[in-house]
Write a structure and sequence with these properties.
Number of strands: 6
Helix content: 25-40%
Largest sheet: 6 strands, mixed
Shape: globular
Number of helices: 5
CATH superfamily: Phosphoglycerate mutase-like
């Protein structure tokens, strides 16, 4: 199974007056940049079987942009298991229902995603940092994981935008 872990794109800064602390929308610049990133993700990852997102607006909007630019035709699945602070084990238990899928993308928040990715490759502490709009691919046998997966690649937004500008290399 290929598990893709995507951090939401750039949102309105924390503490901006008029916006809730935890449920802030993407900025216009964040949307524009992530559209380029999503096009690159389509080039390097192709179509997903399942896209799952945190319910917070910045993550869900990011997941929907990804869905649109990777020709994903299903509904994005929303789960509280991807909310900041949710236990990783409960997320893995939730994801177990998708073990028959080849390519799953989860969209959420740091530092939780870095811990999840690190845990999947057998690390006890976070060794993977996902900038806003970054994605990594980890190959694993199944969820919940019984043995360590393999980090295949990690792409930060600048790398993704370079790919989208020059898709033929």
């Amino acid at each position: 199974m290929q598990l893709f872990i995507l951090r939401h794109a750039t949102a309105i800064p924390h503490g901006t007056p008029g916006y809730p602390t935890d449920d802030r929308p993407l900025t216009e610049e964040g949307i524009e940049k992530f559209i380029s990133c999503a096009k690159a993700i389509n080039i390097i990852a192709g179509r997903f079987d399942i896209i799952i997102s945190s319910p917070l607006v910045r993550a869900l909007h990011t997941a929907k942009i990804l869905a649109e630019h990777t020709m994903y035709s299903k509904e994005v699945i929303v789960t509280d298991h991807l909310l900041p602070g949710s236990p990783q084990r409960s997320l893995f238990t939730f994801l177990k229902q998708f073990n028959n899928s080849d390519k799953i993308c989860i969209t959420g928040h740091e530092p939780q995603l870095g811990y999840i990715a690190s845990m999947l490759i057998g690390q006890d502490e976070s060794v993977i940092e996902l900038k806003k709009g970054a994605i990594c691919r980890i190959d694993i046998d199944k969820l919940p994981p019984e043995k360590s997966g393999r980090l295949v690649w990690l792409m930060q937004p600048k790398q993704l935008m370079l790919i989208s500008k020059n898709p033929n290399g």
